[in-house]
Design a protein that fits this description.
With about 425 residues, the protein is mainly beta. Among the domains are: about 140 residues, Immunoglobulin-like (Sandwich); about 35 residues, no CATH class. It is built from two helices and 17 strands. Strands 1, 10, 11, 12, 13, 14, 15, 16 and 17 form a nine-stranded mixed beta sheet that branches. It has a four-stranded antiparallel beta sheet with strand order 2-3-4-7, with no helix packed on it. The protein has a four-stranded antiparallel beta sheet with strand order 6-5-8-9, with no helix packed on it. The N and C termini lie close together (about 10 Å).
């Protein structure tokens, strides 16, 4: 972070434009060591000619935007006996202006208009001469509070909103102005900790280039890249298939039973094929069936018991999460201000962080166990058990963190000095 201290915070805005003023020279996009001293956006005062180097006009800005008056400086030559000062505009008559002590003030001027001043002089030798100087009143620009900052070229002053954050959203910004008025304004690429959406790279900070003849106030520039988006989560594994049902058991046999066994088998057939037709609430019938089923327990045997259900299949593993997206590059900040005795500048430029990796997908559920083999109502066989459920699949691995963006150090030149 770079900080240029404020010598004394401004209270009065003073900004001058002289006659024969060359307006803005574009800010070079070359590296700092390629910037030359003559690349400032506003030229120094230059006389119209050697003959009238003491006769010139200066536009002086007032506190409010687009409020100016012109001060006309008259030559101090002892040989001059009389003065006559006039103002002229296109398609208008000459207007004589009052003056005193070799200067005059013209307050009836408007932004963007050009005014010519004519000085008629008479020397002691009675020779007369006319001097002429021309000036265009600058046009100021006021930046709105809530609009995204865009590139601007202003012949006069650029008024930034007080204690406001102006976002560039990563656009390339080029500001050229005669003077920048910044009452604790912040220019910032993205909101703090701004992060791209899932699997989307962070936006780059773009270029922030500012060229001005002068600046007053306090300006902070945060040229941070946007953080990369997180990786996408892996997909869920497939559920395991259910187990197969166990084989049903048979009724069973008693080799010591002859006649009664045939009756039992008959009841078994009835219950097997017509179970829905038996009245299970008929106590007499059910008691008789239990007696037939039990018989001589020592002699009864189970020839084909029902089988347990088979286990369910395991769920498959979840897939891996995707890697985080890359962070955006920092903004490339280039500042060139010719004069800033009452100006504090703070800059920062950091790259966006890479996005975190996506979580692995959850494993699939294990399949349910197969049902136990069916047991007939009159069977003497022991019941079977349902099969165990399959195990769930393992979660997939998480993705890797994305790479950070690149950082570009700010290039700052104030008063012709490189401050990096």
């Amino acid at each position: 972070m770079k900080h240029i201290p404020l010598n004394s915070y401004y209270r009065q805005i003073l900004f001058t434009f002289t006659s024969s003023l060359a307006l803005l020279i574009p800010l070079s996009c070359a590296p700092a060591d390629a910037w030359e001293d003559d690349s400032s956006p506003v030229s120094e005062q230059s006389p119209a000619s050697a003959q009238n180097e003491q006769f010139f006009a200066t536009a002086i800005g007032q506190d409010q935007p687009n409020a100016y008056h012109v001060k006309i400086h008259l030559p101090k030559t002892p040989e001059i006996k009389t003065f006559a000062l006039y103002r002229s505009e296109p398609n208008s008559e000459l207007i004589e202006l009052p003056f005193s002590e070799n200067q005059a003030t013209d307050s009836n001027v408007h932004p963007g208009k050009t005014y010519s001043y004519l000085l008629k002089t008479t020397f002691d030798s009675d020779d007369s001469h006319e001097l002429k100087t021309t000036i265009t009143i600058p046009e100021d620009k006021v930046v709105p509070h809530q609009e995204p900052l865009k590139s601007l070229t202003v012949s006069g002053r650029l008024f930034l909103p007080e204690k406001t954050v102006l976002y560039t959203q990563g656009d390339n910004i080029l500001i050229r102005a005669g003077q920048i008025v910044s009452p604790e304004t912040t220019i910032q690429t993205f909101p703090t900790n701004s992060t791209a959406s899932v699997a989307t790279p962070g936006r780059h900070g773009g270029n922030i280039s500012i060229a001005a003849s002068s600046a007053i106030g306090a300006l902070t520039i945060n040229g941070n890249g946007e953080n990369g988006g997180p990786g996408a989560q892996g997909t869920t594994g497939k559920d395991g298939s259910a187990g197969d049902p166990g084989r049903p058991g048979d009724f069973g046999e008693n080799p010591y039973w002859d006649g009664p066994e045939q009756l039992v088998l008959a009841f078994h057939k009835i219950t097997k094929n017509f179970r829905r037709g038996i009245d299970l609430k008929d106590e007499g019938l059910m008691r008789h069936m239990r007696e037939l089923r039990n018989g001589d327990k020592k002699a009864a045997i189970c020839t084909h018991p029902p089988e347990d259900g088979t286990p369910g299949q395991n769920g498959t593993d979840g897939s891996a999460g995707s890697d985080g997206a890359s962070g955006g590059n920092s903004a490339e900040i280039k500042i060139q201000i010719d004069s800033a005795p009452q100006f504090a500048l703070t800059t920062s430029a950091s790259s966006g962080s890479g996005g975190i990796g996506g979580l692995g997908g959850p494993g699939g559920n294990g399949g349910s166990g197969g049902p136990a083999g069916r047991l007939d109502l009159l069977s003497i066989c022991p019941p079977a058990k349902p099969g165990p459920a399959g195990s769930p699949g393992n979660p997939g691995r998480s993705g890797a963190t994305g790479p950070n963006g690149k950082r570009f150090p700010p290039i700052i030149r104030i008063g012709g000095k490189l401050l990096n």
